[in-house]
Design a protein that fits this description.
Layout: H1 4-13, H2 21-44, H3 56-84, E1 92-97, E2 100-105, H4 115-142, H5 147-167, H6 174-183, H7 188-197, H8 199-206, H9 212-251, H10 256-283, H11 286-292, H12 297-312, H13 315-318, H14 322-331, E3 333-337, E4 342-344, E5 352-358, E6 360-365, E7 368-374, E8 378-379, H15 383-386, E9 393-396, E10 400-406, H16 407-413, H17 418-435, H18 445-454, E11 456-460, E12 465-467, E13 475-481, E14 484-488, E15 491-496, E16 501-502, H19 504-509, E17 516-519, E18 523-529, H20 530-540, H21 544-558
Antiparallel strand pairs: 1-2, 3-10, 4-9, 5-8, 5-10, 6-7, 6-9, 11-18, 12-17, 13-16, 13-18, 14-15, 14-17
């Protein structure tokens, strides 16, 4: 249900007050006092834990009631923070989560806001529970021992435990998303778990050195797995002890209502447990999980966020208006790809754009493997604009997952936004042009994006001397449009046009320019600084051998000292 108007009125009438300095000061004070008072109450022993009026059954019933109220307040905290940032809440209501009725609000619009606003929104939910838990702790402390104090003590306990879970960064709850936004590491948990399952052990066996990011992924992934196992064992042990007391109290008594309530509550516990075990089992079968994905609102929300993070990480899309990012992410669908499946085939009409979310693919041209693409890479972008035939086949090398965007949906989204569509058309065409150059033809999409970020355009008029023989070399050049003439010691060597490169010899061998290159007509160039040429192109992208082969080819062709086109 769209409840944005209601939440806007709620924020304008009272919600804004909780973000004022006095309210924040009171909230922080309560957040600090609450846990301290609970420690004091545990020491005093006035209120038994999870027991109300000497009854485990009553405490168990109150737990469900208080948990339901707590989750509603928690979600309202998120919603008020979204409204404070000036964003909208398109949906809200109630849903079943592992068999329990819970409230939810759709906060995806806040992803278009600043990092600070996203952090505040994630923090607001558990902070609301923590401050309210402080109020309950004070009430339990000052009320005389009795039913009223016990009620506040029980509710405060639920609030504080709920807050503890939500602040835990090892669970995919608010604390995790705060950590992701703070560190600016999208999809941190799946990336860390993927590293622990695969690359970590390969690097250990190979005795390779770990980068700082890899060390962080390893620690976070191992901690997440360890905590999950510990939490399951702790929960099973805790509920085994408490449910035994509860069942014994109710079933041995003569109260039919208590016996019926015990059976009902027991069923409510067994159903979520069975659902949790069923969900765990589904994860063992990736293809089955794919077909059932999207049935759970939480799973859909996480998938949309992951798709949005993937879009933001692609330079081609980074300059789009913020609202467009979320629209496109919402329109993308998840697809799980089995090993050996051809996602696209060379020569077929293209109508879908893909981003790799997990796994590995090979790109084949005319039956020959030209490169591999992995998580974060993408393909099929030109299909969104001109539906041109695929120029390569893309085949899954392992069970993989992608986000897909259909061309028809893309056209509908941009039907009235010609400026954005024109901007994307220019970016896609430029990228395709660079990708077609022989030097960059085998680069993965992410590697090509790195090159595009480093390339600097340069336009020269006819007659301009671009490099001069004998001068120090400081740049590498690619001809985008136009023609240049190469001379050496005043002698004509050759003429070159679009796609040709020059200037690499001075940078590879650290010698002066060995030829003069002059523009024959207005010419557009792409250049790399000496530093980017060495660090990015030659070393990181491992193109040094290709460049050396190119220079030697020119050397043989011109029967001179290594000169490339210089």
């Amino acid at each position: 249900t769209n409840i944005d108007a209601f939440l806007t009125r709620l924020y304008n009438s009272i919600g804004w007050f909780f973000f004022t300095r006095p309210a924040r000061a009171v909230g922080v004070t309560l957040s600090i006092l609450g846990p301290l008072i609970y420690v004091e109450e545990f020491v005093r022993g006035r209120y038994p834990l999870l027991q109300f009026g000497d009854s485990f059954l009553a405490a168990f019933a109150l737990f469900f009631i208080f948990q339901f109220i707590t989750l509603i307040i928690h979600e309202l905290g998120h919603a008020m923070a979204v409204k404070r940032a000036g964003r909208s809440v398109p949906r809200g209501g109630f849903m079943l989560y592992y068999g329990f009725p819970v409230g939810f609000v759709d906060t995806t619009d806040i992803w278009m806001a600043s990092r600070r606003a996203r952090l505040i929104t994630s923090f607001a939910g558990p902070y609301t529970g923590l401050a309210l838990g402080g109020v309950c702790a004070l009430a339990a402390f000052f009320f005389p021992q009795g039913a009223t104090g016990a009620l506040f003590f029980a509710w405060g306990f639920v609030l504080l435990v709920n807050t503890l879970f939500n602040f835990n960064p090892l669970l995919e709850l608010d604390g995790y998303y705060m950590l992701v936004d703070w560190l600016e590491k999208p999809s941190l948990r799946p990336r860390a778990l993927s590293f622990v399952r695969g690359a970590l052990w390969e690097k250990i066996r190979a005795r390779e050195k770990f980068s700082r990011e890899e060390i962080f992924f390893a620690l976070f992934g191992i901690a997440s797995l360890g905590y999950a196992a510990f939490a399951i064992l702790l929960a099973l042990q805790f509920w085994r002890l408490r449910l035994a007391s509860l069942a014994g109290e109710a079933l041995t008594g003569a109260n039919i209502f208590a016996q019926s309530a015990t059976l009902l509550l027991g069923t409510l516990f067994v159903i979520p447990l069975a659902l949790a075990l069923y969900a765990w089992g589904r994860k063992l079968f990736a293809q089955v999980a794919a077909r059932l994905a999207g049935l759970n609102t939480r799973a859909e929300k996480l998938a949309r966020r992951e798709a949005l993070d993937a879009l933001r990480a692609i330079p081609l899309w980074q300059d789009l208006p913020e609202a467009r990012h979320l629209e496109i992410a919402r329109a993308m669908r998840e697809e799980n790809i089995a090993t050996g499946t051809a996602v696209v085939r060379q020569g077929e009409a293209g109508d879908t754009f893909y981003i790799v979310a997990r796994g590995e693919f090979e790109v084949d041209v005319n039956g020959e493997r030209v490169r591999r693409i992995v998580r974060g890479d993408y393909f099929g972008e030109m299909a969104l604009l001109n539906h041109a035939p695929r120029n390569a086949s893309v085949i899954a090398l392992q069970p993989s997952r992608v986000f897909a965007l259909d061309g028809i949906i893309f056209d509908a989204l941009l039907a009235r936004d010609l400026q954005t569509k024109k901007q994307l058309e220019a970016a896609f065409a430029y990228r395709a042009e660079i990708a077609a150059l022989p030097l960059f033809r085998e680069l993965t999409p992410s590697e090509l994006d790195l090159v595009l970020a480093k390339l600097e355009p340069q336009s020269v008029d006819a007659g301009t001397v671009i490099i001069r023989q004998g001068e120090a070399g400081d740049r590498f050049y690619i001809i985008r449009r136009g023609r240049v003439e190469v001379t050496q010691n005043g002698r004509y060597i050759s003429t070159h046009g679009a796609g040709a490169t020059f200037g690499e010899i001075a940078l590879l061998y650290n010698i002066p320019r060995t030829a003069t290159v002059c523009a024959l007509e207005p010419t557009e160039l792409l250049t790399l600084t000496a530093t980017d040429f060495s660090d990015v192109l030659a070393r990181y992208l491992k193109r040094a051998e290709t460049l050396q082969n190119l220079s030697q080819e020119h050397f043989r062709r011109y029967n001179s000292q290594p000169a490339s086109l210089e």
